[in-house]
Amino acid sequence: MTPALATDVAVAPLPAREVLPWALFGILMLAFAIYFVGAEQGASAVVQGDMIHEFMHDGRHLLGFPCH
Amino acid sequence: MTGALLLRGMIVGVIAGLCAYVFAFIFGEPQVDLAIAFQTAVSGGADEGLPAVSRQTQAGIGLAVGLVGYGAAVGGIFALVFALTYGRLCAVRARGMAALLGLAAFVSTALVPQLKYPANPPAVGLAETIAARTTLFFLMLVLSVICMAVTVLIARRLWRERGGWSASIIAGTVFFGLTATSFLALPSVNEMPPGFDPAVLWNFRVSSLGIHVVLWLILGLGFGAVAERLLEGRQVRRPAAV
């Protein structure tokens, strides 16, 4: 490790048994949230109509998601 | 501990999203308005009926909810990836680790995908190709994150045998080669309507990248500070406090 990143503080990893359930469930849920912000009622739709699409319109364009 | 990190990641993500909203409102919205003005002029002033949501709502609370929602979600995922990699990938402390992860996340989730499929303002992009464009965009996003993960693992493996300099050069070359190959392999999209001002397109795309810069700067640096207090608080002695 380069001196700038060297450490005299213990960098102890969190136990995998504790992290993994959080990681699996959390990433699944949060990916769903990103889908709702970025893509719902665009190429595919879970909820009918275009309210979510129109409400998220500017955020989608500006975050770089294909909007319409 | 993971739960505490997740919660903090999402809170820092909300703050990052709010800052990104201020940036987006100042730099991005004028370009969106110019693009919509072009769209209206091309369609001869005939609008597609009453919009379900007013422009004011789209550019105000809609944009804010979109960016804060995105910030909270990526902040949460960021915290979970941090929890998985902290102390495992390298012996870097919390603040350094979060900054490195934030840089990697910006490059792989924003910069690289947008170099292949850049952000498009309203009026750019054909309605009938939205399905293909969405698939390609998310495919590029996933590929780019995989390229980054492979690169980090290669760098980690080579670091001890070859030293940081060589390991970084080799891993960086691998990342460049993998992303360049995926750029070649995936089809290009160019649906510019004739007469659209290229300056508006450029400014729009730069402000889109700027939004991601603001998001990841605040997430990478802010989360690092918060995680340090949580994970290393008792061990860290600030020079001023000694």
Provide the structure class of chain B: mainly alpha
Number of helices of chain A: 2
The number of distinct structural domains of chain A comes to 1
Largest interface: A-B, 48 and 67 residues
Number of helices of chain B: 5
The first-to-last residue Cα distance of chain A is 47 Å
Average of the residue pLDDT scores of chain A: 86
Tell me the series of helices and strands of chain B, N- to C-terminal.
HHHHH
Q: How many discrete domains of chain B?
A: 2
Tell me the β content of chain A: under 5%
> Mean pLDDT of chain B, nearest integer?
92
From the spread of the alpha carbons, the general shape of chain A counts as elongated
How many β-strands of chain A, per DSSP? 0
Radius of gyration of chain A: 19 Å
- The N- and C-terminal alpha carbons of chain B lie at a distance of 28 Å
**Percent helix range of chain B:** over 70%
Question: How are helices and strands ordered from N to C of chain A?
Answer: HH
Helix amount of chain A: 40-55%
Oligomer: heterodimer
Overall outline of chain B: globular
Can you count the beta strands of chain B?
A: 0
Explain this structure.
The complex is a heterodimer of chains A (68) and B (242). Chain A is mainly alpha-helical and 68 residues long. Chain A has helices at residues 16-38, 51-63. Chain B is mainly alpha-helical and 242 residues long. Chain B folds into two domains: 1-45 and 55-124 and 196-237, no CATH class; 126-191. In chain B, 77% of the residues lie in helices and 0% in strands. Chain B has five helices and no strands. Chain B has helices at residues 2-42, 55-85, 94-116, 130-185, 198-232. Classes of the chains: A mainly alpha (68), B mainly alpha (242). Chain A: Keywords: Membrane, Transmembrane, Transmembrane helix.
